[in-house]
## 1
Amino acid sequence: MIEIRQDGNFTYVFSKYIDPICKVPQDEEILIHTQDFAEGKINSVDSVPSDFMKGYLNPQTGPIYIEGAEPGDTLAVEIIDIQPDRDWAVSCNIKEFGGLVATNATHLLNKPLEEKVWIYRLQEDGTFKCDTNPKMHYPWEPFMGTIATAPEYEALSALTPFNQGGNMDCHDTCPGNTLYLPVAVEGAMFYTGDCHAKQGDGELIGTALEIAGKLTVKFHVIKNKKINWPRIENKDYIMVVGSARPMEDAARIAYTELVHWMVDEYGWDELDAYDALGQVGEMYVGNMCDTNYSLVAKVQKKYL
Amino acid sequence: MIEIRQDGNFTYVFSKYIDPICKVPQDEEILIHTQDFAEGKINSVDSVPSDFMKGYLNPQTGPIYIEGAEPGDTLAVEIIDIQPDRDWAVSCNIKEFGGLVATNATHLLNKPLEEKVWIYRLQEDGTFKCDTNPKMHYPWEPFMGTIATAPEYEALSALTPFNQGGNMDCHDTCPGNTLYLPVAVEGAMFYTGDCHAKQGDGELIGTALEIAGKLTVKFHVIKNKKINWPRIENKDYIMVVGSARPMEDAARIAYTELVHWMVDEYGWDELDAYDALGQVGEMYVGNMCDTNYSLVAKVQKKYL
Amino acid sequence: MIEIRQDGNFTYVFSKYIDPICKVPQDEEILIHTQDFAEGKINSVDSVPSDFMKGYLNPQTGPIYIEGAEPGDTLAVEIIDIQPDRDWAVSCNIKEFGGLVATNATHLLNKPLEEKVWIYRLQEDGTFKCDTNPKMHYPWEPFMGTIATAPEYEALSALTPFNQGGNMDCHDTCPGNTLYLPVAVEGAMFYTGDCHAKQGDGELIGTALEIAGKLTVKFHVIKNKKINWPRIENKDYIMVVGSARPMEDAARIAYTELVHWMVDEYGWDELDAYDALGQVGEMYVGNMCDTNYSLVAKVQKKYL
Amino acid sequence: MIEIRQDGNFTYVFSKYIDPICKVPQDEEILIHTQDFAEGKINSVDSVPSDFMKGYLNPQTGPIYIEGAEPGDTLAVEIIDIQPDRDWAVSCNIKEFGGLVATNATHLLNKPLEEKVWIYRLQEDGTFKCDTNPKMHYPWEPFMGTIATAPEYEALSALTPFNQGGNMDCHDTCPGNTLYLPVAVEGAMFYTGDCHAKQGDGELIGTALEIAGKLTVKFHVIKNKKINWPRIENKDYIMVVGSARPMEDAARIAYTELVHWMVDEYGWDELDAYDALGQVGEMYVGNMCDTNYSLVAKVQKKYL
């Protein structure tokens, strides 16, 4: 197994302007170590989160060059496993960041909430329990908050979800699922980070149970297949992630692309697909705190 | 059991300006017959949906006066059962209406999609199967698209979801759940209609499997308890429905009120509740086609 | 001249369910007295604005029945003059209301700003000067914040701007301009109130220089002409007011209807009209604080 | 006078990852040649606009390194003059792009409008007249649609307006005005392009009267002054440009930063500034077609 570790020199953009840290073949198991959103520096209830917002946030492992990937292809990321890389996780309330407060995007005159840090400890049964409130005790249900390929010519902040993935914070980028991403540059230039031990729909407070995590994946390149937005598939579902503001635009993207998927690959008539999703489509909020909101539209394969 | 039927003289607003069709006691089983969103007139693939958009839409059974309900109380609607009142359901694509098209709210220069009607027949096993596409074959998972109490002084279209319920089109107004609504006028003035045999998240195409339905409920009045937005509860979950535009405002309302619920009735610290929902809150899209969008925030009781 | 005064028994909805206070002929000068948004009760820097938010707000004079107006017609409201009906105006910051704060629509966990009242005195030269800050000294540029005809079957809060006018808070409902409103019920059922001595674009703080005002108008009914949204005209401009959330939907409504106006009445090709407005259309924010945002699209007649 | 010309090798991102094309001193007149948004290739009514959307769009002249500019400073761009660099301008309707159509952000199932190109010829009196519709005849009122400094670590598409300027498409980046931009990298790394002979509020159809233009500016660096969003000033007004989606977030940014400006530099109390802008603030829509919407909040200096 190939093991990739990037201590110290992390990346904070999805960008083709950075040299790849390694080249990897398709179809092999690859173990990728990742740091948490604050490089582990918010590690106590006495940490001051906004101190870290001044620097760079959401360090990424990458870019990883996938052999054979070229613009116009699709990269399939088969997510095999995620394991914790340490025995604690952290969430926090960061000044002017989060789903229920005024932010630098929804910019208001209200004063910010106070900041607060919660430390969660890994228990023997694999769950995570908060130091300061025992009711906050949650299962290990890990996923990668951030997975992306590099844009064609932009270099986007690692805080941004976009049409090639990024900081989607949707819990379906988890073991057992395969994520499909557009390839815009040679080698795809893959990035990942922001492992979450557990997160609710919306990443409401702006942080999940943030943890350093070890991701095991296989990469597969689907040649000459162009997709417009991230797709996810498992044995039961097909899904599309739309990221935009306002939130209804994220919802429209996700469902419109799901209609296109049904039409292009499952032979549906467009209006029939539209009606079918009206009856059996599912949609949850991935994140409502990032620079774009991410919504996931999904449908069970048994209905296709 | 009290049985309420309102053939012919339906109501198309949530309003205190209409005389109640009956007065009912609390704590008794009540069977309410309802018509579908188009009074059964869209009943063939040859029907032209937009012909019916010119008249009144979404006929409501009501208002029903609940004895003992006064402004400042909360009405608990215990949803016991929903049965079909006919053997077919209908969905349709209506011109300039729906989640993936330009509408009179998102008003653009694009030309409308063509209209189309799908008729679904009740099968012996209780499922509904489309006449024209056998893959469109769905289970009976009924709920009331529209449930409301009358506003304090407005009379709102039965197409509108708002802070006293209305056309929320969220699938959790279903048997087994209890819906809590603010009471703004004497007798609460309860309305319901728009039964859905099955609907996906978002009511994407603007119509569900629309059917005449028979609803069995019990009403309970919680005296001197004021809530701001509709709440739903069952043995596993507490939930809040937020309705607004843009969609993020619906999401903010739902989650903010869920925080308040946890603080006021479960003794949580506000910031802890905010963080907990970040980790284990759930949020789905009820409707993305109505005059306001409705989103449902929920959390499992085991985490409270 | 007909003079209409409605002391005491004001209306807080746009509704056909209320008996008209009078019937008036077309084409005659009518003087209408109006109260301010808080019936003059916020009259000192010591007033507490949120005390008044608990009761009814934005009292309307009306409904006024216009002879000859029937559903499907358009009501032309020729605004001839507005005069102050007292020698002071008031603006205030109301808790959880306004364009730069969390509100009950953009519902957040941030704590509200403190409330504050500003009293402006009418000066000899006709300007208004603030008691507590002499730099806040503004000209008399009056308009009616609220003008509406009654909806077909809803009764809408007087705080709401909608497709028949209402609480648009656009400064072009002023002397010299003619406002066109759809007629949905017999007699049109006209309402007005919320006179503003002066207001900036957006009514940013949620209140303008609020004053009791005397409005002089003439009504004219244009038979069998159906418009979809409020239109305004003067010797130099045609304008459309769109009201919706999110704000881009208000903008889309206003400009789309302006395209339709150019096509239907000025003989423009649709794409040419679209391009022309791209080059010479104007758009300002009427209000960004009410239940819907109102934006005004306009174009100079010389370009038509 | 320093003259800068960049034939051929244009830039399509605002980025620090590109070597500067030149270094220029402060306080000197600099003449910058720019190409139009399509490098002059859409030059006939027979051109097919979407053919050019497949390639790179909105070529920028830059980056220009301004001597003495360092992160944490503010760059003042004194706009002295803009002259046409050719005798025709072009606007067009591009498939799935523009303010009144479904786009890749507001992603719907509606079919696109047909594409169309309008060619405007420079007349002897300096006006521009459309070849195909003589009513479309407009004055020369030029401004630069796109002006930016490079972000700290992102490389953003030249189609994007953001907190360091970019594709704002606001007509106040015109001769006589001074634009202030944050400096995030050494040398500021200045870009400009997208000259508009004339544009209405909103750039409704997605293109203005697009033209190659010659811009004369002086750069001044204000040391150790940090601003958050672009500011504009002339003898009569101070203004802030906010860029975001939904549109109300752009409006909130612009007005909130204008409040801060009044507080920080004109000595206003925050609530008084908020109220003053409620009465005399002005706000127009810069663009409603780009990746973010741009709104301009402004206030006359005489009120400060």
## 2
Amino acid sequence: MIDTKRAAALLCAMNRILLLTHVRPDGDTIGSAAALCLGLRAMGKEAYLLYNPEITETYLPYAAPCWAPEGYQPDHVISIDVAVADLLPENASAYADCVALAVDHHPSHGYFARETCLNAEAAACGEIVYEILTEMTEITPAIALPLYVAIATDCGCFVYSNTSAKTHRIAAALMETGIDVSAVNQQLFRTKSKVRLKMEAQMVAQMELFDHDRVVIMKIPLALRQEMHATETDIEELSSLAPQVEGVDCGITLRELCPGKVKISVRSGARVNASEVCRQLGGGGHKAAAGATVEGSLDEVKSAVLRAVETVVSQ
Amino acid sequence: MIDTKRAAALLCAMNRILLLTHVRPDGDTIGSAAALCLGLRAMGKEAYLLYNPEITETYLPYAAPCWAPEGYQPDHVISIDVAVADLLPENASAYADCVALAVDHHPSHGYFARETCLNAEAAACGEIVYEILTEMTEITPAIALPLYVAIATDCGCFVYSNTSAKTHRIAAALMETGIDVSAVNQQLFRTKSKVRLKMEAQMVAQMELFDHDRVVIMKIPLALRQEMHATETDIEELSSLAPQVEGVDCGITLRELCPGKVKISVRSGARVNASEVCRQLGGGGHKAAAGATVEGSLDEVKSAVLRAVETVVSQ
């Protein structure tokens, strides 16, 4: 494991760099990778993001200027916010064994790269990329904006428990470059598509409470998604709804990916270790936010995740 | 007008201090006043908050340790986050003419005090109180927590456009005292009662779009409120839901107060002047947020408000 100074030194010695993001890309992986890409370019290097086929409209504007041309042959491959090699998109799998540097903040990191710059205390991978960039180059407004998106999205705009004093200090430094974050905040945190609002309404109408109303389960059946013609953007971060229910300290969202396959998202307070719950189901993540993908029907997976919560709580 | 250094100097020379908060007290007035009160006490002074009869359960824990004993006779009276003397609670009106120092951040401030420490750029009055306190005493965790509440509530947890780099820097400094803000964030910004969630779900399920999907109308029928046993807290700020709909620049909420009487809330972007719309219906407000109370059924009022929007837009 290396620190941000050493990571910066490694990057300084590289050129023709390809940056990899993770499947179902969020603001952190895209924003961090785009910011690093622009920083490396500002240093006179050639740098690109590998196209991520699951990019959503929300984050496309940050990634689009960085996409690598088809068939690009990099000299060095860097992964950004990728916990394990399995979370690389399919078109990145050929690079899984030759990642020179992994920059990440997941405690469940799989150490698949030659060198790893990991800080599990960081609210976002964007915090680590910020520190690496400050070692190497000036943070211009063009770099600051995707980095703000990376950090703000991963801490729910400074509301999640991963938000630290450092998170705020970095946000302040980014804003001091002159970027206007109010439009970004409005779009990311204060606007919802009609389809998304309708899906949330359905999820709330059908939510189920367990364990003396401390555990809530919300479901996103495939049929609901199809019926509403929901896009990936519409269902992005829908797992943040369940933990909002008053009195609940474990909010679980079950999303049917395809018949017989369910993605579990667990958001929890101190009583329930979300990472442990998801590890029992073959997944992983953070103590307060974790996930797993499990075979079975929605009802079967519901039973399995409730059993896992019970096991973890009683340990 | 005086700066925070001068305000601190004035406060240093005072003792037996009574702090006043504003009607319908929010996190900023209570948190800022409580923090200043505790700071003054740490300096060996006698300081109290005048009881605010409209205090809600949410902010009571911060105010309660500071309430003045009944009949307290102060030597100096300070107002915190009070824009004009009319916004003092009734039990504070006797002090309206003898406020020694007003600390505030409202651009509409009425200059009713002997000295005024105003910064209309501050996202919260808490930012100004923070600066005054740093001039006078150490910010202990006990002071930092209500100050964090003050700042975070007035900027919607760093999402509103009033959030500045300074706001983030102060939040960082407060967190560095060692306070745990995650419980506060969870309670204030990430919790909704089940009743509220179900009401929002109903409002979304039945929302209606008009004018090429630029105007949305959401309704809160009396029957829905009764059926759900909704309290005032459950329906507080429900009018902030409609303007979140993507693509909409005019979000209208109709709340049936009693049979035949409807409260209209209009939140709008640049195209629709909400104040003009509500003026046509006998109400008023600001360009981006206004209201009116109108006689009629929900359907009648819906037609009336849509006509009003059409008239105002075509003017």
